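Reopening this ticket.

The earlier resolution said the output was attached, but the attachment link was broken on my side. Pasting everything inline this time so it's all in one place.
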Amino acid sequence: MATPDRRGRELPARRRLITAAARTLAEGEGWDAVTTRRLSTEIECSQPVLYKHFESMGDIVEAVALEGFGELAEELHAARHGGATPGDDVGRVATAFHGFAMKNPALYDAMFTRATRLRFSGESTPAPLAEAFGELRDAVAAVAAERDVDTLTEALWAGLHGLVMLGRNGRLRPGYDADRVELLVAQFRDAGSSAG
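Inline output:
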């Protein structure tokens, strides 16, 4: 029988194994391929063991989404602080957001398009969501002037999300992603300079 200390170490490790397997399956075959039966086969455990760690597939998707928001926050932070051009935080962050979404389509879907209980606005917003939004917000704040930073950030986020989803679904001409992101960002830069 496992000791409590060992069980305490095994639970987080097993959860990470399950979410990693879910991500791998989703990126390779789409979220429809991610079932408890398939996951239990992939990680060589029984379905009841999965349910000891997650109550439902929705909980697994939410865990994957939380990991994704943590990774997105790190990428946006690096983009915001890693530029040689001072004052272009919003451009670097927008480009990083778009690139992250295009490189990780299934992860992005878990974060933004699949039904979850994760919410951005509220006291119960999980830290990874708040951190990712905060990085985007901090970049927008640099060009906001007297305008409402939160609303501007939401507008940029919505614009980027629209470009990602339309591009991924073949609704936009291929090869112009960078041009479209730059055009979107220019609206924020230009409005910020004219507001002052």
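Reporter confirms the inline version is readable. The chain has nine helices and no strands. Residues 4-29 form the longest helix (26 residues).
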